[in-house]
Amino acid sequence: MALATPTKLGAPSPATTRTALTVRRRPSPGRVLAWVLMGGVMVVTLFPFYWILRTALSTNTALAAHPSSLLPVDISLGGFARVFGLQSTKDALAEGGAGGSLHFWRYLLNSVLVSTVITFCQVLFSAMAAYAFARLRWRGRDTVYGLVLAGLMVPAVFTLLPNFVLIKELGLVDNLLGIALPTMFMTPFAVFFLRQFFMNIPREIEEAALLDGAGKVRVFFRLILPMAGAPITTLAILTYMTSWNDYFWPLMVSYSDSSRVLTVALSIFRAQSPQTGVDWAGLMSATLVAALPMLLLFAAFARRIVNSVGFTGIK
Amino acid sequence: MAIASPHRAGAHRQGAHRQDARGDGLLAAAFIAPALFGFLVFLLWPTLRGIYLSFTRFNLLTPPEWVGLDNYVRMVNDPIFWDSLRVTVVYVVMNIGVQTVVALLIAVLMQRLTQSAFVRGIVLTPYLVSNVVTGIVFLWMLDTQLGIGNQILGALGFGHIAFFGSKTWAIPTIALVNVWRHVGYTALLLFAGLQAIPKDMYEAGRIDGAGEWRMFWRISMPLLRPILALVLIMTVIGSFQVFDTVAVTTAGGPANATNVLQYYIYGAAFGRFQFGYASAMSVALLIVLSVITIVQYRLTKAGQTDLG
Known about the structure:
The complex is a heterodimer. By secondary structure, chain A is mostly helical. Chain A contains 16 helices and no strands.
């Protein structure tokens, strides 16, 4: 933006620092250098993703023989076959897998279930609460809201241990519901985020609907929620990503396939390396399976996610 | 604010269900019930309970037994705890130090070069994958024998480095791996802060003959300070809670070199079933984080902005 106007400035001022000059000339060395830096940042950012793909498409034997090849070596989908349990134990062992049973379809399904339930419930309940805090009149409102906001001060990890004790008492260990429960109802951030938005919806719009005879419940679901479509979508995407990527909490709660989510399954896959060395091709295939849904989600909503970072940053 | 109008709204004709001045008590109760339930049961209660458990001996099988300050006495005398705290602080300093400088650089580059959402999208990409994925990918790329990192080092004539396996390298490696995942997000936060600075300030600076370097220090930095301070508080708090990457890559090793506090707490609770002791260390971490927040806030006056 600002860089686009150097010519308008006419006669250059007497400044002679190198950086000042770089702004003026068209493809100035400073600008070139800056772009080179930027390019370097992007390469470092993206290279690991390429490396996942490159490794996932190779075989372990070839990976060991050509560790520095930049392209996939001995292209094969064996890694994916192992991850989804499509390979016989004998084949798996022969290709450098652990031969243990992994059911990534199951873990994928578990991750989808947990993240979907958490996202849907958390966003809905947080939105209802945010509306009550922003628009309804009731005694003690500001006190309760203050208390909820104070919840922002408690670091996430602090509640994990006591919550685990609670989930155990409820008999929900190794249960998908046990994983979902703590974040299913609200987070202080979600309430805060949506309340900010509801506060800014002009009251007149609401009052007009009320005068037309609509009840407040109806106004909320038919008017306010649709109007808040953009922030609600943003919040839902962020919540989905957070629960999809969560590791510490599911690690505590899930013990068997029935409740294992992808992050935990990945770490177990990594831990059960065969004698011959790590099954990198299989591990990278699994990693790709775990990461791909989020990357696709990002591809679909990139602009929205990128633009939301500024003001959700208070998180 | 909008709250100021209850009387006016209440005085309207009988448009709404309730025109009494007492408000929407019942409806509000229904709307707030699920969230309040979640807040009380899964946030407030666990917080209080965590503090309570820190004064007990508790192995999860028998009821907690009150032991007063025993856990805290034990903690103060536990060399592994102190070492773990030291390791965590070293990690945080490296992680936040590098991350903040690189994020600032990226943010300024973006501000001065391009507004492209595509570029910002690429920069943010690592943030979308989990810590577990990140940890495993770098475990592979930095593998001592086959990792591409060591292949490159070898090609350049250096010896191979056991990035995750040596006591010297493990913490810096984990710190940098986590920089990779978080730096884009931090850069975007700072970028948003930079965008709030009026463009004509840079115009004025240029007319006065200031170069990019001078303008960065004289315009960008002072005006970015409040945002930078908030971002620092946020990232430092997050950094102190490091767990996932350690659990996946080194499991606290070699020889406790990466035994960060949260990992030690996890081991105490789920490895040795000392939930009381684990809770006491959690409380200690909570206190450390609160103190850091307050001190940082005071020092940097995070709330203030020179833009007025």
